[in-house]
Amino acid sequence: MSSLFHLFPSTIHPMVVHFTIAIVFLAGLAGIVGLMWRADGFFPKLYMLMLFLAILATIAAGVAGVISESYLKTIPNGVGHILSTHKFYGELTGVSLVISFALQAWRWWNRKPAWSVSGLSLLFSIIAVILVSMAGHLGGTMVYDHGLGVS
């Protein structure tokens, strides 16, 4: 299986994860605007679409992370804990996005009111923004402070 992983470059995770971060942030922004500006259904619909794309992007980032990790020969002392926390925050980001999407889909399905943003869904979306930020900070710490994956 690792030989299949090595069809991708070792830098696949940083190439994919930045798109994920942007989509998660844009989903949160669309949700905030959609909650405040109720003139039409554009932003709630955009929020729903962005949440779906954020889930797909988070899955892609996780898979890319596994691929990039498979290239590591060793993990320096003190970095193993950071790496496992980084992965945990990434997983929690995905869970938060799925919950947010499910709550928003439930609201849409029940048409309460049609095409509006669920406050609870937005809360989980904001939690996802915080979690992806924490995961990104830890990823940057591993690369820039410890040189993980660059040597």
Automatic annotation (TrEMBL):
<feature type="transmembrane region" description="Helical">
    <location>
        <begin position="88"/>
        <end position="109"/>
    </location>
</feature>
<keyword id="KW-1133">Transmembrane helix</keyword>
<feature type="transmembrane region" description="Helical">
    <location>
        <begin position="12"/>
        <end position="37"/>
    </location>
</feature>
<dbReference type="InterPro" id="IPR019251">
    <property type="entry name" value="DUF2231_TM"/>
</dbReference>
<feature type="transmembrane region" description="Helical">
    <location>
        <begin position="49"/>
        <end position="68"/>
    </location>
</feature>
<keyword id="KW-0812">Transmembrane</keyword>
<keyword id="KW-0472">Membrane</keyword>
<protein>
    <submittedName>
        <fullName>DUF2231 domain-containing protein</fullName>
    </submittedName>
</protein>
<feature type="domain" description="DUF2231">
    <location>
        <begin position="10"/>
        <end position="150"/>
    </location>
</feature>
<dbReference type="Pfam" id="PF09990">
    <property type="entry name" value="DUF2231"/>
</dbReference>
<feature type="transmembrane region" description="Helical">
    <location>
        <begin position="121"/>
        <end position="144"/>
    </location>
</feature>
